[in-house]
Each structure stands twice: as C-alpha cells, then as structure tokens.
Design a protein that fits this description.
350 residues, alpha+beta, 2 domains, 7-stranded mixed sheet, 4 helices, 18 strands
Length: 350
C-alpha cells in the first residue's frame, strides 16, 4: 500500500511540476519589448511634398490562413490550422494579386507571419516585400516558443505588422500599446504595438508625413481596449502639435458609429465594440467606408454577405492638414483572407 501511495505521489508531483515548470520557462523567455524601440527598415528613394496625392491600403491578411472555406475556433468555429503549406501559399499569392490590383502607394499589413507553425513557417513578410519591391519595415507583436492549445496546438508563433512604401524614410519605431492580457495569459499572448514611420517632406518646413500601422485588441473587455486607443491618441496628438501630417490605420477591431454597419446576424460569433469621432484625438477624423464589409466572422465558412456575419472594423485616422479624397472597402469577397482591404486616397494640403 505504501508503495502504491509513493508511486501515486510521484506521478502527481510530475503532473503538477511539468505545467509549472513550463509556465516558468515561458516567463523567462517571454517576448518583452520596450515601450519604444527602433526598427530596422529598408528605405525607398521617392520624395513627397505638400500638395501631393497619396494612396494607402490597409489589409489584415490573417497570416494567409483563411480562405472562404475556413473557420476558426476563437470565433466559435472548429478550425485551428490551415490545411497545408500549399494552402497558405495559394492564399498569400492571392493576397499579393489583390494588393497589386488596388495599386496603392503605401501598404499597411496586419497579421503577417515570419516564423509560425500555423503558417508552416513561411516568411510572409519577406515574400510580400520581395513581390512589392518597396522599402519596408516590420514590427513583431506575437512571439511565443510554443502555444500548447487547442488540439492540434497552435505551436510556435512569430508574427507582426508591416509597412511597405517607396518613399524615403528617416526613422521607424515600434511603440508598445498597453497590455490587455490577464496575468495567466501574458506569456502566450500578443504584445500589441504601433509601427510608426517618418517620411521627411521635400520642402523647407521640416514637417514630416508620419505613418502609423496598428492592430488593436479584439478579445478583451472595453476598458482595456480604451486604454490602447488612449495611447494611440497620445501619439497622434504629439505629432499634430509638431504640425506633421499623420495617417494612422489598420484593424481597429471596433465598429464605427458614423457608418451604417451590416447587422450582426449571429449571436454565437464575436461581437465587436464600437467607437465614434469623439473617441479620436482633436485635430483628427475617421476615414472609413461602408460600401462593403471589411471583415467576416470565422464561426463558419463564408457563404455570402446576406447570410454570413460581417463587420466594418478596418480603416484610417487622418490629421486635419490632409484632405480625404476617397475611402472605400475593396470588395474581394474574402477570397484569400477574413478581411477585405480598405483603400484611402488623400492630398497633403499645402
């Protein structure tokens, strides 16, 4: 009897020790970026001047893991990983064809993997950069050695956000946003950030065009999301006070009160919060469009706009020294991603 109890105690000790040791190990090696970090960049050579026109595309590519047939467990679906590396490459090639078709001067990308198990360790940032031929910069917001859930596990994660453009860039920084994850998830969760680029203007003003790409929190409470937008507003205000031109954009993970959004057609899928112009820093306005949804729910494979749950959560924030000429959701029917890109066309006021 004593031998059985001893063996049971050893087994129980092992069962308790392994997860504790694993959590401690993850904490030791946890990706822990500084509040502000310089980011490597390849600069283009084109110049911008006040009075010039500019187009910017923002596109959450969903790590090329979601075509129309995919669903995802965190949205209420069953899927965890894409079917194969060939499937990821087909989506990535399709995403590149969409970017080419839209023909924008500047491209903001969210959820671009560089070394993740879920995308078969394909360096998507390198692929897009080589295909576009632009200067570019990348900021990591997800770096975990191994995520053990669900079944099959998500495994290794290394992913982030990128900006691609042909203009001369003087500086690129990664600015951390407030952490929203509870303590027990911090080791395996995203470290949200803003990727900021400075483009000097070809005039005597010493002003700059400041580009900010972001991907805000989705799966948390409203107060925590608000803290991230407060941090973004501080960045916007600081640049506005300098007289700089500012275009910030990406995946807000929030709907917009100013638009007639498509209705939420399901009670089982993810339901975004909402924001209004009043939530944006003074001197700025939202540049968003409702000609088509920009995102679909992944609770089930995509059917069509009349049936599937869809949202508008992608767009831009623009400073008041920039004239918005047009903004539209580029309707590609969620063929290669769970998002449609959004294209902004502006003029830099003299």
């Amino acid at each position: 009897m004593k031998k059985i109890l001893k063996i049971s105690a050893v087994i129980l000790g092992i069962i308790i020790f392994i997860p504790i040791a694993y959590i401690a190990f993850l904490r030791i090696i946890m990706y822990d970026p500084a509040p502000s970090e310089d980011v490597e960049y390849n600069s283009g050579s084109m110049l911008l001047s006040p009075g010039d026109k500019l187009s910017v595309l923002t596109f959450n590519i969903g790590y090329a893991g979601y075509n129309r047939e995919e669903d995802f467990f965190m949205d209420g679906g069953k899927g965890v990983l894409p079917e194969s590396s060939d499937s990821v490459m087909r989506n990535l090639s399709g995403i590149m064809s969409v970017i080419r078709e839209e023909g924008s001067d500047v491209v903001f990308i969210q959820e671009v993997d560089v070394d993740s198990h879920r995308s078969f360790h394909i360096n998507e940032d390198a692929y897009l950069s080589s295909q576009l031929g632009f200067g570019h910069s990348y900021a990591c917001n997800y770096k975990v050695l191994f995520i053990p859930y669900p079944i099959p596990p998500l495994g290794k994660m290394e992913s982030g956000i990128s900006i691609y453009n042909p203009y001369t860039v003087s500086e690129t920084k990664r600015i951390s946003l407030p952490d929203t994850a509870p303590w027990y998830m911090k080791m395996g969760y995203l470290k949200r950030c803003v990727l900021m680029q400075r483009i000097p203007l070809n005039d005597a003003s010493n002003h700059e065009l400041v580009l900010m790409n972001f991907h805000m929190e989705a799966y948390t409470d409203e107060d925590k999301r608000d803290r991230q937008f407060e941090a973004l507003n501080e960045l916007l205000t600081a640049e506005h006070e300098k007289g700089n031109y500012v275009i910030a954009g990406g995946d807000f993970n929030q709907s917009f009160d100013k638009l007639d959004n498509p209705p939420v057609r399901s009670q089982t899928g993810w339901d975004p919060g909402s924001m209004s112009e009043e939530d944006i820093a003074e001197g700025f306005s939202l540049a968003v469009a409702d000609n088509a949804p920009s995102c679909r729910s992944l609770e089930e494979p995509y059917i069509d706009y009349d049936t599937s749950q869809t949202y508008i959560i992608d767009g831009f924030i623009v400073s008041d020294n920039i004239r918005v000429d047009s903004v539209r959701v580029c309707d590609h029917g969620f063929e290669y991603s769970d998002h449609n890109p959004v294209k902004l066309e502006v003029t830099l006021n003299r």
